[in-house]
Amino acid sequence: MKYLKLIRFQNLVAMALIQYLIRYSLLIPAYGVNAVLGNVAFSLLVFSILLIAAGGYVINDYFDIQVDTANNNVLVGRKIKRRVALLLHVFLTFTGVILGFYIAYVVGYLLLGAILAISAYLLWIYSLKLKRKLFIGNFVIITLSAVFTVSIAMFEIAPKLNHPASIHLITILSVYALFTFICSLMHEVIKDLKSSLGDKAFNIKTLATEWGITKTKEFLKWLSILLAFMIISVSFYEFSTNIYALLYAFTTLVMPLFLLNIWIYKAKNNKDYDRVSILNKLIIFTGILSLCFFF
């Protein structure tokens, strides 16, 4: 469990959870269990995504030793030896890509294997140099988060575009992809705010180091307002007659977003930003669980 914690275990759990909820709340009810990927093939594809993501976390920490030291957040070099971290990254990424390609080939989704390989490469390039470029690194990470969220499901839908349920499924998945995109962007901005001191010292260009703390917090505020407006609109469109779904949306998503706004403006130290980050992760988690209302 110690090493799983070091590779962001909670994020990997969320990634796996949303894949299975999409499968069982959207795809199987729409198409039937015999018209989607088998359980083994699906589970292995999800596992390959988790391996690639875990490898990305490890290599990011490998290249971030000095910055993490400045921000008092050292993993590699103190808790894990650098050589072990590099070997772990190679093992996780290589295994994930090969497994993904194999399953994609077996089930006829070869393009999905290519997407996984490209994603692994982008995670490497992000850790190596893109994260030092203003907004480019953030954009790569948040885009990959959205792609990972819907990639398997979209390849399930692609051969079935003539099915009556496909357009509605694409719409729902697009909403969740956008939700993931905005939440991931908020996470990156919060992380940049927290690590601004170390990032500035090592010339890593982030919104916090280039715009300043105040403007970056203002940007985060408008992101949360946009997300709240999207959640309210989608909730009334999809669940106008389901009072429980509407209550869930307001109490576990909209209200926490407004609380996040209050906390972020009051945040001054790492402890404050950690609290905001945890709240943002809670919003992501409850957003994922909202898929249960489609059962």
Helices and strands: which structural class? mainly alpha
- Helical percent range? over 70%
Averaged pLDDT: 85
The residue ranges in which pLDDT falls below 50 over 5 or more consecutive positions are 1-7, 66-77
Q: Name the helix and strand elements from N-terminus to C-terminus, one letter apiece.
A: HHHHHHHHHHHHH
What is the first-to-last residue Cα distance? 32 Å
Radius of gyration: 20 Å
DSSP, total strands: 0
Total domain modules = 1
The count of helical stretches stands at: 13
As a percent range, the share of strand residues is: under 5%
For the sheet with most strands, the description reads: none
Q: What shape does the CA trace take?
A: flat
Task: Describe the protein's architecture and organization.
The protein has one domain. The protein contains 13 helices and no strands. The radius of gyration is 20 Å and the shape is flat. It has helices at 2-6, 9-31, 39-63, 65-70, 82-106, 110-128, 136-157, 166-194, 196-201, 207-211, 213-238, 243-266, 270-289. It has 295 residues and is an all-alpha fold. 38% of the residues are buried. Helix 2 (9-31) packs parallel to helix 13.
Describe this structure in a few short sentences.
The chain has 295 residues and is mostly helical. Helix content is 80%, strand content 0%. It has one domain.
How is this fold's topology laid out?
Blueprint: H1 2-6, H2 9-31, H3 39-63, H4 65-70, H5 82-106, H6 110-128, H7 136-157, H8 166-194, H9 196-201, H10 207-211, H11 213-238, H12 243-266, H13 270-289
Helix pairs in contact: 2-3, 2-7, 2-13, 3-5, 3-6, 5-6, 6-7, 7-8, 8-11, 8-13, 11-12, 12-13
